[in-house]
Amino acid sequence: MTQSDTPIANRLNVLVLLSAGCHPVSGRSAPVMEETQAIALARQLGAHVSGLHAGPEAAPLRDIPGHGLSRIVMLRQDASVDPLPALLAFIRRNPPDLILTGRRAQGGMDSGTLPYRLAQALGWPIAADIAAFDRDTTAGNILHLLQARPKGARRAVSIQLPCVLTVHPAAPRPLPFAFAAMRKGVIETIEASSLLPQSDSTVVVSSSDIEERPYRARPRLIAKAGAQGNGQLMVHPSADDAARAVITYLRGIGVLQAPSYNSDATPTEPAGS
């Protein structure tokens, strides 16, 4: 379903969460690939798409309108403040049908947990690593998703709106960058403190909440298992075949020893024979 054949009244309201990404080589501000892919996915669905960002400045967002996002709302707050309360306050005042995010921001110290914390706070379902999706034509509040799995596998799942989806790098490429669209894009700035009670507007991420532990060397067993790369995909195997495959793999990485047979050993007769 494309934007041209979707009735305006039935179009979804999609919100793309944007982060302050940086280029992995130069370190300069740059859009995050999965977030621009999320914009392309929403545009293919024929949805009303807007962006949302919480941070101290709009400079990291200046190129994003060129990838097909005409409106971005920036919630201005200090970089040390947790963005979740401000995002929640805005979303609850302007509830979308669907929230799209990347897998993880590229600022350097990002944990990738924000989409899950946001979904938990909203009480919405969440699905991760989405490569494609389409709206159910019979039930408008159902999305059919294609979830990326390891080794190129895909899994079809369905989810009910409203929901949160994280986009996988295997999703379609972003829309081509257009300089004219970047110039026309609107970045609206709102002070995050105006959306929050005074007690919630200064939730600073404290370093005392982070536990530091000494580095522990990776076990040799795990390193050896990951280095082989000779796994196999078994679809609906029988119990015997699955057990044999597991035993063979464990013997291959040294967890189990192969049974030893002594041809010179003479079996003993049971007592009383």
Number of helices: 6
How would you sum up the global shape?
A: globular
Average pLDDT figure: 79
- Share of residues in helices: 10-25%
Strand order of the largest sheet: 7-6-5-8-4-1-2-3-9
Spell the H/E element sequence: EHEEHEHEEEEHEHH
| Beta content | 15-25%
- The overall strand count is 9
- Biggest sheet architecture: 9 strands, mixed
Domain Electron transfer flavoprotein alpha/beta-subunit N-terminal: 14-199
Protein name: Electron transfer flavoprotein beta-subunit
Keywords: Electron transport, Transport
Q: What does this protein structure show overall?
A:
This protein has 273 residues and is α/β, with parallel strands linked by helices. The protein has 6 helices and 9 strands, in the order E-H-E-E-H-E-H-E-E-E-E-H-E-H-H. Strands 7-6-5-8-4-1-2-3-9 form a 9-stranded mixed β-sheet, with helices on both faces. A hairpin with a 5-residue loop joins strand 6 (142-148) and strand 7. The model has no long low-confidence stretch (mean pLDDT 79).
Descriptors:
273 residues, nine-stranded mixed sheet, ETF_a/b_N, 6 helices, 21% strand, alpha/beta, globular, 22% helix, Electron transfer flavoprotein beta-subunit
